[in-house]
Amino acid sequence: MKLTTEQQEMLDGKFGEGAAYAMKIQVGIGECFDAPRMVPIKRAHVALSNQAGDLWFAEKLLKAGAKCRVAPTVNPGFCLGHFTGSCAHPVDEEDADHMRRTDAAYRGLGAVLSYNCTPYIATNVPNFGEVCAFSESSATPYANSVWGARTNRESANSALCAAVTGYVPEYGLLLDENRKGDIVVHVEADMKTAYEYHLLGMMGDKIGEGIPVFTGLPHTITPEALRNLGAELNTSGAYGMYHIVGCTPEAPTLEAALGGAKPKREVVITDKDLQDMQEEFSDKVNSSKVDFAMFGCPHFTLEEAIYIARQIEGKKLTVPMYILVSSHALQMAERMGIEEILAAAGAELISDTCPDQPCWHYLKGKVGVTESPKCAYYPRRRGIHFLIRDLDTCIEAALTGEVK
Ligand code: F3S
Asked: Is the pLDDT of residue 404 over 90?
């Protein structure tokens, strides 16, 4: 790979040991993919997980003196303010300490401590054609597909290296020729709400490896539905990008999305496929009773919080409802009185928090209801189980304590 003088100096340690370490990793990645050069990034998002490996890497860079040239937004861990102190189910000290160390490491590196996995909705929105380094399952396809920005499917660690050096190796989805679709997915299912996009995204097995081009979808799709599609495509498979004909910017027509080539595969998705996916992915539990409802994997928008508030205003939930949002959405909901309406009904708006975190220890052995297959997928390893239904059915289940 050909480096500029500045990049070579960074690799040689002129900008410190931390930057040299990050550059060495990126040059290694670039050489694996035959990248000819490194190109500057405008923005980055790091999918920190608040887990041991991620913390080890962040602390290693910090100890080596690394500082982000491009301040990245970061994924959620769990909200220390919410799950410690007077919390009814506080995390144990070891878990709290882990989160404090994650916070300290990323603060020291100069990250934007957003703790939100949907930065592309409000806080870190790329322009068309901008080169970025985005990790996080829903963030990479949203940046590429919806905004027309250019990012490879970075890991949390490679995105952090890019934030430190300010560069990424030029390969893959950064290049025009690799952004064309090669699988046509004819959607015949009735895509009524954002929920159906969750189920559509879970069709990775059927769609197969490549860049899907969806046909049969509306030309105007909500940000929430597009968020869900990308999140689940990277739960059921590995997709850095997709196209929706007549909707996403690089797919004005089917021919343009395919770059004039023939697709390697065509797939049809029907209502039955979506229904089967809902059944297959819900945990097999013996009862229709649920212990809690959880939404916001990926983080819910302010609009979704408002929608739920309108449905449950003046009512009392039978089981707790947790709605995970960004700190920005939480603050707006507080200012607007939405948080108060939710709290009065028994729903909690929680910022900075992911379902796959130790703060949910008290839900072990319980059964929840959610509209997100991804929300059901990760907490399974923590002994938490879920039934998956559309949002309205989930809200009704939280009101009655039962999935009807
Ligand atoms: Fe976000 Fe965590 Fe779900 S990072 S997408 S809330 S698994």
From this structure: no
Task: State the distance from the centre of ligand 1 to the C-alpha of 135, rounded, in angstroms.
Answer: 12
SS (H, E, C) the chain: CECCHHHHHHHHCCCCHHHHHHHHHHHHHHHHCCCCEEEECCEEEECCCCCHHHHHHHHHHHHCCCCCCCCCEECCECCHHHHCCCCCCCCCHHHHHHHHHHHHHHHHHCCECCCCCCHHHHCCCCCCCCEEEEECCCHHHHHHHHCCCECCCECHHHHHHHHHHCEEECCHHHCHHHCCCCEEEEECCCCCCHHHHHHHHCCHHHHCCCCEEEECCCCCCCHHHHHHHHHHHHHHCCCCCCEECCCCCCCCCHHHHHCCCCCCEEEEECHHHHHHHHHHHCCCCCCCECCEEEEEEEEECHHHHHHHHHHHCCCCCCCCEEEEECHHHHHHHHHHCHHHHHHHHCEEEEECECCCCHHHHHHCCCEEEECCHHHHHHHHHHCCEEEECCHHHHHHHHHHCECC
Decide: pTM greater than 0.85: yes
Is the CB–ligand 1 distance for residue 46 below 6 Å?
no
Which of 294, 299, 327 is the pocket-test mutation for ligand 1 (most atoms within 8 Å of CB)? 299
Query: Mind listing the pLDDT tens digit for each residue in 144-201?
Result: 999 999 999 999 999 999 999 999 999 999 999 999 999 999 999 999 999 999 999 9
Measured in Å, residue 121 CA sits from the centre of ligand 1 at 14
